[in-house]
Structure formats: C-alpha cells, structure tokens
Automatic annotation (TrEMBL):
Its EC number is 2.1.1.67. Keywords: Cytoplasm, Methyltransferase, S-adenosyl-L-methionine, Transferase. This is thiopurine S-methyltransferase. GO terms for molecular function: thiopurine S-methyltransferase activity. The keyword Transferase applies.
C-alpha cells in the first residue's frame, strides 16, 4: 500500500506530552510558516474579523500574527506547557479557566480576548463548545493525527467550519516505507476522500 507501514502506527498523548517536556519540537517554526504568508489571501478571502481555528496548535507564532490583524484565534493543544509557552513567549497576559463540558480541560484566553487556547484532546471538542470557524490553518495537525483517527479528525473539522470557510492544509510528501512518522504521509487521494 502507498502508506507503507504507517497504517498501524499510533502515537499516544503521553508521547506528545513527552516531546514538549523534552523540547523535542522540531515541528515548531519560530518564524511562522511561509506557506501561511503565501496563501494568506486564500484563507482570508478578502474578509476581516474572522474566527480562525488552529488544530493541534502547539505554540504557533501565527496565532498572534493573525490576532494582531484583528482576527479571533482559537486553538487546541494537548500540552499545557505549549499553551503557557505561547503566552509567555509573546508576553501576553492571559486567564485560565476550566471547560465545564470537558473533564480536566482548561481554556487559556488572552486578556484582550482574541486568542483562546483549549488544553485538551481535540476529539473532546465540538461546535457546541467552541462554535464554528471561518478559517482553519492546519499546518501540522492532519499529518500528526494517527492514521486510524483521520476519519474522526476530518469529521470533526467539517463539523467545526462554516459553509463559506477556507481550510488551509499543509501535508508532507515522502516514501512512507522509509519513515514511520509523524509527520505521517497523507496521499492526496485520501485528503480528497476525507474532505471531499
């Protein structure tokens, strides 16, 4: 199969938390992602004041960049350390509160109110908790999701977006027999079957 041995690969939540703890975060880009800058017009589509979702956000610098442009940013990340690092590295004051609908979850919100980061499993979210979004910047989420969870992930994403939303997705292309992932190889045919 063209996904090689990756089909059965599972990375646990604990492994992700450990990556953050150990500073093994080669996936984080200090300067922001050049593809977001290149395709920003596609994401915004001439609109301002959008609600933009960052799945598996880590401490992505693009969240502040888009918030500074006047957009409202919502992210989800399993690592509390990543979320707190985001606010401290940008010197952004924030408040922290529990998310009543999700046991053990917390929401960290900038004092300005335009950045809200949920610390929980992405699969615990729903549009009744976070609302709907005008745009999604999926820079490293689909390729980080375990292959067996891709259908659940795509269904959630489809449920979280408005009909007129823009979804920017970055994937990686390589021979999956030579790398076990993550990032996982997601063939274009699978992206089409997941998102239509």
């Amino acid at each position: 199969s063209d996904v090689g041995s990756q089909k059965e690969r599972v990375v646990t939540e604990e492994e992700w938390l450990q990556k953050w703890e150990m500073g093994d975060i080669g996936f984080h880009k200090e300067q922001g992602h050049p593809l977001l800058q290149k395709y920003l017009d596609v994401l915004l589509n001439g609109r301002s004041g959008l609600r933009i979702f960052f799945p598996l956000c880590g401490k992505a610098v693009e969240m502040k960049w888009l918030a500074d442009m006047g957009h409202s940013v919502v992210g989800v990340e399993v690592s509390e350390q990543a979320v707190k690092d985001f606010f401290s590295e940008h010197s952004l004051p924030y408040c922290e509160e529990p998310v009543p609908e999700i046991s053990g979850a917390k929401m960290f919100q900038s004092t300005s109110g335009n950045i809200s980061l949920y610390c929980c499993s992405i699969y615990d979210l729903s549009s009744s908790i976070v609302g709907k979004f005008d745009g999604v910047w999926d820079r490293g989420a689909l390729v980080a999701v375990n292959p067996c969870d891709r259908q659940s992930y795509a269904s959630l994403m489809i449920n979280l977006v408005e009909k007129s939303s823009s979804y920017l997705l970055v994937t990686v292309s390589y021979d999956p027999n030579k790398h076990k992932g993550p990032p996982f190889y997601v063939p274009e045919s699978e992206i089409k079957s997941l998102f239509g």
